[in-house]
Amino acid sequence: MIKSVTLKDIATALGLSASTVSRALRDGYEISEETKQKVNDYAKKINYNCNLVALSLKNRKSYSIGVVMCEVSNNFFSQTINGIESIAYEKGYNVIISQSHDSYEREVMNVNHLANRSVDGLLISMAAETTDFSHISDLHKKGLPIVFFDRIIDEIETHKVTSNNFQGSFQATELLIKAGKTRIAHLANAPQLSITKERLSGYKAALEKYNIKFNPDYVKHCHHGGRLQHEVEDVVKAFLQMKNKPDAVFVASDRLSICFLIAVKNFNIDPREIGIAGFSNSDAIELMQPSFSYVRQSAFEMGQIATQMLIQLIESKNPVTEFEKRVLDTETFLNEPNIIHEPQIIF
Amino acid sequence: MIKSVTLKDIATALGLSASTVSRALRDGYEISEETKQKVNDYAKKINYNCNLVALSLKNRKSYSIGVVMCEVSNNFFSQTINGIESIAYEKGYNVIISQSHDSYEREVMNVNHLANRSVDGLLISMAAETTDFSHISDLHKKGLPIVFFDRIIDEIETHKVTSNNFQGSFQATELLIKAGKTRIAHLANAPQLSITKERLSGYKAALEKYNIKFNPDYVKHCHHGGRLQHEVEDVVKAFLQMKNKPDAVFVASDRLSICFLIAVKNFNIDPREIGIAGFSNSDAIELMQPSFSYVRQSAFEMGQIATQMLIQLIESKNPVTEFEKRVLDTETFLNEPNIIHEPQIIF
DNA sequence: TTGAAAGCGCTAACAT
DNA sequence: ATGTTAGCGCTTTCAA
Question: Which nucleotide is nearest to A6 (CA to C1')?
Fold first, then answer.
């Protein structure tokens, strides 16, 4: 933090009072054109910039919004940030990002820290560990604008944006069924997350539609969402050891999809023998072998919408009581794992 | 921003002065144990949290650091953020992230905005467009601690961290040469970036070592770093139309590598006929077809080191005059594009 | 049209 | 051991 030019500096230099300078800079109606001219010229000359911290303290408004998410180095979330940032920038807000790493404790710390930094509002995607929401509802009750995205909770009444996880899962599972698979396993995320529940039910619904009996042994949760290396490999091992091995797997998240594919590769499993479908927002998905059907979320749009909602809450004159839950369609892409494209041009 | 409990509230409630409460909460030596007890109990009871904005104004210190990078949704940069955040969190600093999208104008805005938000220091990776550095050197002269990472500039004297781009490029190019390639092209990033120049010279040095004549036509720069879809495809087309088509390509960045591989796929080029090596920090690299040799940067460590350096600058009592430039080794991984791994286990 | 004064929430020098 | 005061940089009544 550096000492820089202040209003007072301009005032004394020009023989005016600080309030006059302030008004001149904000183009106040009471100030003469002449003074405005003088002040603005001088301000530009000495490169004056308004101290935003002082402004925040005075106005109780910081023009910054806080974001709490599990981690940024994940295709889905980094694309979300891009969306958030695009709107925030356009509306003149700063973005302060913090990561929970799916830890309850860190989520609580981050949320409180951001609140004390006087963010004008909060964008939250819940940590996997979190089951107690009082750190959020306390702030919400105090009137802090909050919008949930992706991993939402029902307990707090405010705007929410999420994907149509049910639909995405349903379609992905259906693709596997239509490819003739009947023993379809489900590699799921941490069980308490909203997205996990929704994706599980989409999977179940697809099975039901095609009269495939749901087998609980085929559902394996990764409590750390695949952040622990061995998590997914353990699941794959378990699948391989079943008497009734699955013939397909529906994978519930971006990170898990990559982990699962790597496990398939490491275990030297023939990709032609197993159907794979999963959520993924990777930009390199077309390059991956084994190829797999995938569900893509509108991550960028989700970030944009969440931010628009939040800024609407922040800037609304009278308290908002009607809340909206936006559910964004997913896109499902079919890939036949057994098709091999023969290259034609010699470079 | 919400109105919350202040020092004064506690003071009046307890019949004390604000300063006493302040000292009690900060465990000042002058305050009696009894008062401290009383104050702390009450503060906890009503859930008092110190207003960090007021603190910032008072102390001229915000405990936050600003980050300016081209974009977060890029494996290398999001991993860097993870490193930055890990250290910042540990030391009690907030991270404010902004993206330049490689635009000079946005970089200037972001840098100034962060300075006015009174960040205690700045972590910068230069935008591709930037050639005038006065927005940074002005702040630097005023005493704002700044550390450059990855895309650094020589013009400003401060701490810097970057990868050993020369070494990485040299090794990658050497791998292609050792695989028998002689017409090795180079798909490069925006030309003014430090990393572009370093990688180009590593490439040239490898050619020279093996007595391969450098052909300027084989070097194609992507001024937008592959953010424009067609950029890379145009280059690939140009390569294909050359009388003396390259038999290998060394790709200079994470994003460009993905784009190039997709172009290879889209143009139906037989990957067995072309050697590919490139920088990449993707976590799905092992899954990609065509497989390619790659150079990985220590992104997480780079973020950590840059942040440690910055906090050292921020917290140093007397002005730092000795600056350090850390160059992190890259790791090079060999992949033979023509080896096909036969799967062995049937799932 | 301009200036003086108060205050946002906090801390620290200076009383007492 | 505790209180008073001033001030961080800005805005905003209120007064002139």
Answer: D9
